[in-house]
Amino acid sequence: MASQTFIISSSITFVQEPPPVLFEELAVVPKNYQHILALSFAVKEINEDPQILPNHTLGFHIYDSYFNAKRTFHATIQLMSTVKKFAPNYICNIQNKLMAVVGGLDPLTSLHVATMAPKETLQYAGILSLLLHFGWIWIVILTSNDEYGERFVQTVFPVFSRNGICIAFIERSSKFTTITDSHERLEKGSQIHEKVSNSKANVVVAYGESYLIVFLRWFSYLSKHITNKQKGKVWIVTAQMELTSMVYHWETDIIHGVLSFTIHSNDLPGFKSFVKSRNPSNTKGDGFIRDFWQQAFGCVFPDPALDKMDGDVCSGKEKLENLPGTCFEMSLTGHSYSIYNAVYAMAYALHSMCSSRFIHKLLVDKRELNFQDKHAWQLHHFLKGIHFNNSAGDKISFDHNGELVAGFDIINWIISPNQTFHRVKVGKIDPKGPPEQAFSISEDVITWHKWFNQVQPLSLCTEHCNPGSRKKMKEGEPFCCYDCIPCPEGKISEQRDQNDCDKCSDKDYPNNNQDACIPKAITFLSFEEPWGISLSCLASALSLITIMVLGMFVRHHNTPIIKANNRDLTYTLLISLLLCFLCALLFIGQPGKVTCLFRQTAFGIIFSVAVSCVLAKTITVILAFMATKPGSRMRKWVGKRLTNSIMLSCFLTQNGICIVWLVTFPPFPDTNIHSFAEEIVLECNEGSVTMFYCVLGYLGFLATVSFAVAFFARKLPDSFNEAKFITFSMLVFCSVWLSFIPSYLSSKGKYMVAVEIFSILASGAGLLGCIFAPKCYIILLRPELNNKEQLIRRKS
Q1: What pLDDT is recorded for position 170?
Q2: Average pLDDT over residues 345-372
Q3: How far is the CA of 506 from the CAs of 510, 607, 678, 681, 750, in angstroms?
Q4: Which helix (H) or strand (E) holds 395?
Q5: What's the CATH code, domain 121-266+408-452?
């Protein structure tokens, strides 16, 4: 098989002559020379590998786009024309077949003729992930002033907004096209630089062609209001942009700490040796190296036509590895790595095409195999199915849309004081991994701009609203600009920058800073707390006194003073008062089902017995006095039958009310979560409030009747007349329970229970003291008055 040559044309931006600008000291440093070397290195390896394209030679042409779409179109038509004449689609006397074109750096000059391109949506997602990771929500966007810059804005703006990122403003930078507009462009660039520098946004996302970096470095140099200490920014640049130098006097401080998205690259075995071997004196066929050498090292090669030469003479022994990174890098950049892989992809596609069934059929038919009869578009089918591992060990493949399946590296640009340029890989975007692991960043490795003093920068329109406050939007401004106001009472915000404050659950309450919920303390009137101890001691003391009085009365049960006042009623009253004091203890302690069920009903029934005893005593006194009158018919009513009837009827009425209460809607244990902000009160829910007040109302009715009857009989002429003492006791009793109602209703939680206990003890103590204290006084201290003569004596 005859040896044939495939031609790969590469459109690479390599400015051999400087475009017209305003500075005499301007010099073009063609850093993109590395792209040429990557292309040449790939072709060299392929031609030396007998396994890829045996008996075929791969060649290439290089066309300079000069950042200009017009020149790109011109070069494209030239590729399809004869060598000597500009006649599209007319090719003759040419033995080498053009099969593919590798595009340049910039979308404007490469996408016009591209049929396959890297996936940009992954890069957009990476920028968003980077912004969200560091909390940069107030940013500036700087783009090229073309359709691709506009497409970038239209794509990312809604996505950024949905994720809480605001754009302070968008600036579009145009490149130089003619000498006449250079002043205007530079003036515009200066204004952009000053606007960005004065902005509160500390993060600038730059999207555009590679030349944009050059203008970024010119902007600060040309700014009219430049200061010695420029405010630093975090620049995030996209993969299309490369660090390029075009002048000697340019600003490097602005690019220190840049975070750059670059196409994933790796070190290629033998590439550095290949680069080091390049020398103007022994490199044939390289039409770029002499210009590159002169511009990179600032020297000139001798020209026999000139008598005198300006500047240093190039010796050819200069070392590429000694050049600063801003001029030339020995390590492969992402763009050069992509060119290398693109050439290999073409070669493997040609290899697949050579091995196809179509070629096999030609050989079977003994037809001559001539690749000049093949069309370039037939290569697309094989290119889409290509997948291989390059010499660096990376897998190269395309998806079903013809897009390169490759991730991005996040590179930190570092400029040392001696102008040495370093690239440090600080993160990556891996499309092959799980979505939650596609983005990764090592923030501790990042070197920030010196303005930030190596503290992670913030980029906010408004400082964060701390926990305990919420955001209040400012009318007419973006949603990232807001005021911070404290949360209202009873609400919290646990995180920064919350739009609204949240209520705690019913079992929690806000802390003082209103940034967390604290579990409410569970409380009830216990025997251990001061109120519980005081009331239980008081109840115990009154119970003990009642027992002592009862014992005294039992001991002196045959004395006239005890006999005269219905001994059985006295004992019943004392026992009921004792039970009243003891039932107060049911209200202390953690409420349970049994205690809640019986404490109010027990209190109501026992107190009704006590008050009915007082009522019976009073009625007995009145009837006894009336029965002493001659011919009175009241004698038949005096006796135990009447008192028992009174007591029984009063008891049964109250008992009936309590039974209805327990059957219909009984009390039950409950938790009160609303009375106190910091406490959950365990209490007894009375069930039917109506029935509760019916019990109290009935007691009030009995007390009122007793008071009225006692008041009527208070002046009866009897030395042992209890009516005046009962009157006073009922006055105390009624006063206590009348004051109980407002006190009870105005109290909350366990203090309501304490009020009721105190009312029970106070009213019981009033009955005990007012009725029995005079009798105890006579029994203990004036026994001479405890005789029959005193019983029958009348007032004078």
Answers
A1: 92
A2: 64
A3: 11, 38, 10, 12, 18
A4: strand 395-397
A5: 3.40.50.2300
